[in-house]
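Review form for a predicted model. The reviewer records the input and the model, then writes brief findings.
Reviewer: anonymous (R2)
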Amino acid sequence: MKALSAKLWLATRVLGAWMGVLILLPFGALAQDAPHPDIPDTLQQRIAACTACHGVHGEGTPESGFFPRLAGKPAGYLTRQLKDFQDGLRKYGPMEYTARQLSPEYMHEIAEYFAAQDVPYSRSPLPPLSPATLKRGEELVTHGDPSREIPACSACHGTQLTGVQPDIPGLVGLPYDYISSQLGSWRTKTRATVAPDCMSEIANRLSESDISAVSAWLASRELPADMHAQPAGSVTPPLHCGVLGDKGDGA
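Model under review:
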């Protein structure tokens, strides 16, 4: 019942975001001679499709985990996600539609806006998990599993897991459902990026229980005082990752 309610909530949220656009289409065909309202050419107006789901400042929906936080994420990372949706590497219908006609300059503008937003984080609910599961999650996040060639999350995402400029996102503060679903998406090929796709390699080395453990430990971790991404060059990723011609990682 809880899962059904969550799906209905998601469907309602997405439908509401696009209803304003869809409802005008038939009327536009019937009233071509009607005067067009003046729509202000402001950044806020142009990112309305983003804020309808992700929040005015890109705060996301931590209570559900369906729409991730954009605020404060490195601009290079956000730009890359828009490009991946545009190129069909990352799959989600509304985002693919939104990004389809965006120019590179527009994508950078959107990314810079949300990267500059600094709003408080909200904690999200966690499923009941055993102490052993959380311990396993901590081991994987902080030390990895060398026997399976799984690097520590902190090796790429920073010592405090807050990300690294300009391309590596933070992991702390993200909802359990979002982290686990994205790791699953890499395994099912519904999320990808330009080759070499190192996150796909890592996700496919994780078991389902590993994904639950990592997601739970990250979502339950106390937030550091400084949530900003670390400076560029402050980490040396153990894997080479394809990021629009640069080195980086993604989650």
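Findings: Residues 2-22 form the longest helix (21 residues).
Further findings: The chain has a mean pLDDT of 85.
Recommendation: see findings above.
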